[in-house]
From TrEMBL:
Residues 1-343 form the Aminoacyl-transfer RNA synthetases class-II family profile domain. It comes from Liagoropsis maxima. Pfam families: HGTP_anticodon, tRNA-synt_His. Belongs to the class-II aminoacyl-tRNA synthetase family. Keywords: Aminoacyl-tRNA synthetase, ATP-binding, Chloroplast, Ligase, Nucleotide-binding, Plastid, Protein biosynthesis. One of its GO terms (biological process) is histidyl-tRNA aminoacylation. Its main location: plastid. It comes from the Eukaryota. This is Histidine--tRNA ligase, chloroplastic. GO terms for molecular function: ATP binding; histidine-tRNA ligase activity. L-histidine binds at residues 79-81, 110, 124, 128, 255, 259-260. GO terms for cellular component: chloroplast. It is found in: Plastid, Chloroplast.
Length: 434
């Protein structure tokens, strides 16, 4: 049996990197008073039809939608924002007029061609702030995205921002853009031609060089912005400068979802080819209203974890991944005796492994060395008879026998040494008396 195409296992050797990202995000976002939220993977299909937009690629091509046994139309969530908005409405998280700051990390699903850094099941770290229209929040969340990326040693990127104004501004711009593009209709690729009369803004998001050439002299969305949107965008730029955040304005940046308004932004790198967007987000002040709730202004972003790992995995220095104690028994019948040692070790958070192989003691010691354990705890006939244990320090070549009570007193010293322990490469071990 094989896993489904585009849906990969995260194996034990990989999971430490994911935990590192989670813990870093938790630390930074908790400092900014963002609280974690977890929404269901499966939602009503109508949630995404109403929020993402009927003419988007996600709705038309990429959603995993099915009928359950109750004949309900359900969808594996293709993105996180709609689910958060639904939760905000359902649980009245912004009533009365309060600011609600939340973040999440979890799997999303889109039926698209699997590629490096983007699978059909992919994972997003996301952040959302509900309850404020102030552009200072837009600047703060961009700052938090940059802070997380820097903390993860991802620094080779650029921040691009734009304003797409209100729905009315975009409708006016669509007319101007469509009128311009109709002159080049025969030069557009099939996908762009299909979007010309449904949602020409999506053409701005094309990755085709020829389309970029055509768009070079296209009308500018900035010319359609109303004064309120222009002030919002200008304020955002001033706030980003106050935070010492470098950015550039990209007038063709629109993002791929219909619920955005005013601020949109992306954090991009040139290290991943055409799939260079690490983080993307913006403002969606009418989303809760679209979903049947009251209007609650909101802004947020999402970071693709798989894509991020391609950039930082080699730079991550994992901590606390070293093995402290390897428990070896001279005979399998002594395993029960070893169980009384485990709570002592666990109390101090010393990473251990109990050998269950039943192999001879020499092979168990060789495995302890191969796993780069700091010491091997040995239990044989004499230890069981005398209610003791033997410790073999694999880096010092020292070996001592202790009573259980003496071992308990020794554990704090072992813990202190474990904190500074640097594993060494496997080499020959002198088994000694064992």
């Amino acid at each position: 049996m094989q896993s489904i195409r585009g849906m990969h296992d995260i194996l034990p050797d990989e999971i430490s990197y994911w935990q590192h990202i989670y813990n870093m995000a938790l630390k930074i976002l908790n400092t900014a008073n963002y609280k974690e939220i977890r929404t269901p993977i499966v939602e009503s299909t109508s949630l995404f039809l109403r929020s993402i937009g009927q003419d988007t690629d996600i709705v038309n091509k990429e959603m995993y939608t099915f009928l359950d046994q109750g004949k309900r139309h359900l969808t594996l969530r293709p993105e996180g924002t709609a689910s958060i908005a639904r939760a905000i409405i359902q649980h009245k998280l912004c009533e009365p007029t309060t600011i609600q700051r939340v973040w999440y990390l979890g799997p999303m699903f889109r039926y698209e061609r699997p590629q490096q850094g983007r699978q059909r099941q992919f994972h997003q770290l996301g952040l959302e702030c509900y309850g404020s229209i102030n552009p200072i929040v837009d600047a703060e969340i961009i700052y938090l995205a940059q802070t997380i990326l820097h903390a993860l040693e991802c620094t080779d990127f650029t921040i691009e921002i734009n304003s797409i104004g209100t729905l009315e501004n975009r409708e006016e711009y669509k007319i101007r853009l469509r009128h311009y593009l109709e002159k080049y209709k025969n030069d557009l690729d099939n996908e762009s031609q299909s979007k010309l009369y449904t949602n020409p803004l999506r053409i701005l998001d094309s990755k085709e060089p020829k389309i970029h050439e055509i768009l070079y002299y296209a009308p500018n969305l900035a010319d359609c912005l109303d004064p309120k949107s222009m002030i919002h965008f200008q304020s955002l730029q001033e706030y980003l400068k106050s935070l010492n955040i470098k950015f550039k304005i990209n007038r063709q940046l629109v993002r791929g979802l219909d619920y955005y308004n005013d601020t949109v932004f992306e954090i991009n790198t040139n290290l991943l080819g055409t799939q260079g967007t690490i983080c993307g987000g913006g403002r969606y002040d009418s989303l809760t209203e679209q979903l049947g709730g009251k209007r609650i202004p909101a802004v947020g972003w999402g970071i693709g974890i798989e894509r991020l790992l391609l950039l930082i995995k080699d730079k991550i220095e994992l901590k606390n991944n070293k093995l402290c104690i390897y428990i070896a028994t001279q005979n399998s019948c002594y395993l029960q005796y070893s169980l009384q040692i485990i709570p002592i070790i666990q109390q101090y958070g010393l990473k251990y492994e109990l050998d269950l192989s039943g192999s001879v003691l020499k092979k168990q010691l060789q495995k302890a060395l191969k796993k780069q354990a700091m010491l091997c705890l040995i239990i044989g006939e004499e230890e069981v008879k005398n209610s003791s244990i033997t410790l073999k320090w694999l880096t010092k070549y020292d070996q001592y026998t202790y009573t259980i009570s003496d071992f308990i007193n020794l554990v704090p010293n072992i813990y202190a040494e474990y904190l500074n322990f640097n594993p060494v490469k496997p080499h020959h071990i002198n088994v000694g008396s064992y």
